[in-house]
Amino acid sequence: MNHRKVEERFLVTGALGCIGAWTVRALVREGVPVVAFDLGRNHRRLDQIMTREELAEVTFLVGDITDLTAIEVALDEHRITNVVHLAALQVPFCRADPPLGALVNVVGTVNVFEAVKRRLDRMAPLVYTSSMGAYSAADVNPVTGRLHEGGEAHPTTHYGVYKVANEGTARIYALDDGLSSIGLRPMTVYGAGRDQGMTSSPTVAIAAAVLGLPFTITFGGRTLFQYAEDVAGTLMAASRSSLDGAHVFNLGGHPVDISTWVEAIEAIVPDAAGLLTITPTELPFPSEIDHAGLAAIGPVPVTPFLDGIHATVEIFRGLAAEGRLVGTEQGLAATPAGSA
Ligand SMILES: NC(=O)c1ccc[n+]([C@@H]2O[C@H](COP(=O)([O-])OP(=O)(O)OC[C@H]3O[C@@H](n4cnc5c(N)ncnc54)[C@H](O)[C@@H]3O)[C@@H](O)[C@H]2O)c1
């Protein structure tokens, strides 16, 4: 069993990514010490949503989760009590380089668990992101059409297989060592900073709309949207829960048709009417997802999707006004279709 210390000091792996940036921001706004551990050195996602004063509160460490010693040193030098593990390669990167994907997503995750296990007496439950990518669309219940909790996973990507492995790693560290953990399975996370990955294009579409550029969303049909700020809040609630054992929860949110998503963007950014189009191919993942089990960690934030799109438009408009909304940094191609 992990035992919490009263004074929290968080380490966030993958802190320079989309969900990481929102998690770091939320912790800084609470006045909680936070160490941002990431292989990268580009702080742009944090710069987009945090003030200079807020950024000055963050301790940045350049580190690789495939290096167990680097994680251990970070945990000890900064007397870390809470770990939120987000570092991973997303679906397209795992597909492009499966051995590297396995090294980062599987071995890297084992390293994070191992480092926490070796100092269990001072650690809150280890919180990490699994993914709805662990499931395929065919894993839904044939009668209800919903993904039921506890349903068997048959992933269709390397990434999904690695996430299933992560959940197994968590289970074995609980069995062998009493390490408590909470894994969350997001589906389609959106919001400022969501500029890469298989389900990033609904957010890229918001940036395109604000920039007045044409853009095609890479999938159609329906998906479960989760606002990045809500995911960050849920990760923190999980870290502060006192659950024992290895738990994995599906994340809630709003199931929305991509056509409805485009209409919502056009309503908020009227000048973008006609710029956004949709690839009809549906995602190979469930969209109707049971998530009642998540209540075990207490109340969590769920922003209505219209509010989340609105907030994202406001952030992007603010950046654009300062000349800081750069298409290539927001997942847009260097030469937009139709402009060459
Ligand atoms: N975004 C989504 O919709 C979504 C859905 C389901 C699950 N997830 C999971 O949530 C987590 C965070 O997702 P995100 O959207 O913020 O991803 P992201 O791609 O925006 O960020 C990932 C971060 O991990 C870092 N990283 C990569 N390899 C590393 C290494 N070896 N050592 C240290 N850092 C490394 C990258 O530099 C990057 O900053 C991931 O585990 C992802 O699989 C995301």
Q: For the largest sheet, list the strands in their spatial order.
A: 3-2-1-4-5-6-10
- Shape type: globular
CATH architecture name of the domain at 10-187 and 228-252 and 285-302 = 3-Layer(aba) Sandwich
Q: What about the largest sheet?
A: 7 strands, parallel
Mean pLDDT: 96
Secondary-structure element string: EHEHHEHEHHEHEEHEEHEEHEH
The CATH class designation of the domain at 10-187 and 228-252 and 285-302 is Alpha Beta
CATH superfamily of the domain at 10-187 and 228-252 and 285-302: NAD(P)-binding Rossmann-like Domain
Structural class: alpha/beta
Into which percentage range does the β-strand content fall? 5-15%
Which runs of at least 5 residues are low in confidence (pLDDT < 50)?
none
User: Cofactors and ligands present?
Assistant: nicotinamide-adenine-dinucleotide
How would you sum up this structure, described in words?
By secondary structure, the chain is an alpha/beta fold. The protein has a domain at 10-187 and 228-252 and 285-302: NAD(P)-binding Rossmann-like Domain (Rossmann fold, 3-Layer(aba) Sandwich), CATH 3.40.50.720. The chain has helices at residues 18-30, 44-49, 52-55, 68-77, 91-96, 98-117, 158-177, 201-211, 228-240, 258-268, 305-321, and strands spanning 10-13, 34-38, 59-62, 82-85, 126-129, 181-185, 188-190, 215-217, 222-227, 246-250, 254-257, 276-278. Strands 3-2-1-4-5-6-10 form a 7-stranded parallel beta sheet, sandwiched between helices. The protein has a 3-stranded mixed beta sheet with strand order 7-9-11. A two-stranded parallel sheet has the order 8-12. α1 packs across α9, α4 (68-77) packs parallel to α6 and α8 runs parallel beside α10. The mean pLDDT is 96. Nicotinamide-adenine-dinucleotide is lined by residues 13-14, 16-20, 38-40, 64-66, 86-90, 104, 108, 129, 131, 186, 188-189, 196-197, 199.
